[in-house]
Design brief:
alpha/beta; Rossmann fold; 2 domains; 8-stranded mixed sheet; 6-stranded parallel sheet
Length: 440
């Protein structure tokens, strides 16, 4: 059995290197001596069907629709699955791979992973989203398609040789719902990269002449709770009589235009800046200028168990946070956040105003969050955990082929490549990306 040194990463919901978690993983594996290829869709700014960036080969396909309904998702995922399978053959016949590293959504890549396992390849499942809970959050029901999501998730876990979870909640699901052995499930959090999240001076122009700025960065979708945030803004402006606060919302998504219309209906359009997707430089300007940052993700089973990138990005920039009281949100932010009652827009509004009117508390919370990131949560702390998952994968491959055990310089282990345990500029491409969610 030859060392597992060639990795093919599959991702459907975002292009690379725009998807920061995927790109950080790819760079960490490359730095550890792996040959890394990625298959992903095209996207704005990432239209080229093939390019090599810092030694990582990226193969892209066109995904003509951004689904919002069940039928649309079925079409989108069918196109993605077929395109990914065809490109997998291209990589297989040219650059080659020993491991398929599949990131969800959707939970369909086990079909590709299972096929190539017949040819002796290994399959790693990188669990980004709880698809059954995501379906329930989007459509509000547990019907045939919900049960189908559970079945697809189960078969993904059963096919995987190793599973990577973004937090302990996801790890428990892999073990309890997916039936995986505990020693084959590894937690690799989506830690922020401080090389990218630079603290820079505030841009007072973004406050539109007002005293305070409240910042949000992420997806504009139903489960992200933007409607709750807009209702909180309405309460602040109309009931509390505050006209000194501007709200800057960065990000795109299927609900962006709907949320702009909603702001007009609530009579708060002048107080809310919708920027759409922005390059890193402009996104960081908004967050660095913000006095408070918010996460209005709706309290439901999915968001309660998911780790949101934006929370740790706010903390990395030293910003105090207001969010609804969600389990993994508390695990991440701890004392860097105030926690509003679940799905209570008025309490959310009150917590925002409470923080804005207490600068000493804001500073204390911001320092706590920044220190937590630099001491515990930054991406460099997660790299050894990723490599440990691959070391376990290599051990399982060696055990299944006793005639040719791994050993010496050929072994792939968490400490075989010393450079991999230290931080490297994982954003060295200089490419700009929007900040959003990879449950990351």
């Amino acid at each position: 059995m030859l060392p597992l040194k060639r990795v093919l990463i599959l991702v459907e919901n975002l292009p690379s290197p725009f998807d920061r978690r995927v790109w950080q993983e790819a760079c960490a594996l490359r730095d550890a001596g792996y040959v890394v290829s990625i298959i992903c869709p095209t996207g704005r700014g990432y239209e080229r069907k093939f390019e090599a960036i810092d030694g990582i080969h990226i193969y892209r396909y066109n995904l003509p629709i951004e689904a919002s309904g069940a039928a649309g998702y079925a079409l989108e995922y069918t196109i993605a699955l077929v395109s990914t399978f065809l490109l997998s053959w291209r990589v297989f016949l040219t650059r080659g791979f020993d491991v398929i590293h599949a990131c969800n959504p959707p939970d369909l890549f086990f079909l590709i992973g299972g096929f190539f396992k017949l040819l002796g390849k290994k399959f790693v499942f990188d669990h980004h989203d709880l698809n059954p809970e995501l379906y329930e959050a989007k459509f509000g029901r547990r019907d045939f398609f919900y049960r189908l999501m559970l079945a697809l998730e189960y078969w993904t876990f059963r096919t995987a040789d190793v599973s990577i979870a973004t937090n302990e909640s996801y790890r428990r699901i892999a073990i309890d719902r997916g039936g995986m052995a505990s020693d084959r499930v590894f937690v690799v959090r989506s830690g922020p990269c401080l090389d990218r999240l630079q603290i820079v001076p505030a841009d007072e122009r973004l406050k539109r002449g007002r005293r305070y700025l409240v910042g949000y960065v992420g997806v504009m979708g139903k489960q992200e709770g933007i409607d709750y945030l807009l209702r909180a803004v309405s309460h602040i402006v109309h009931e509390l009589g505050r006209s000194d606060i501007q709200f800057g919302l960065v990000g795109g998504g299927t609900s962006l235009e709907q949320m702009k219309t909603r702001a007009v209906e609530l009579g708060i359009a002048d107080f809310v800046t919708f920027t759409g997707r922005l390059p890193d430089r402009e996104m960081l300007a908004m967050l660095n200028t913000a006095d408070v940052c918010v996460n209005p993700d709706i309290a439901n089973d999915m968001n309660d168990k998911s780790t949101m990138n934006k929370i740790m990005e706010y903390m990395a920039l030293g910003k105090p946070i207001v969010q609804f009281d969600l389990a993994e949100g508390r695990v991440s932010a701890q004392q860097a956040s105030l926690y509003a009652k679940k799905n209570d827009a008025m309490d959310f509004a009150d917590k925002i105003v409470e923080l804005l009117d207490d600068p000493a508390r804001r500073a204390q919370m911001g320092k706590f969050g920044r220190r937590r990131v630099t001491d515990e949560l930054e991406w460099s702390y997660e790299v050894p955990k990723l490599l440990a998952a691959y070391a376990a994968l290599s051990r399982s491959a060696a055990e299944s082929s006793p005639a040719r055990p791994l050993g010496g310089d050929e072994a792939v282990s968490g400490n075989a490549h010393p450079a991999a345990t230290g931080p490297r500029n994982l954003a060295a491409t200089g490419l700009e990306a929007t900040s959003g969610d990879t449950t990351i």
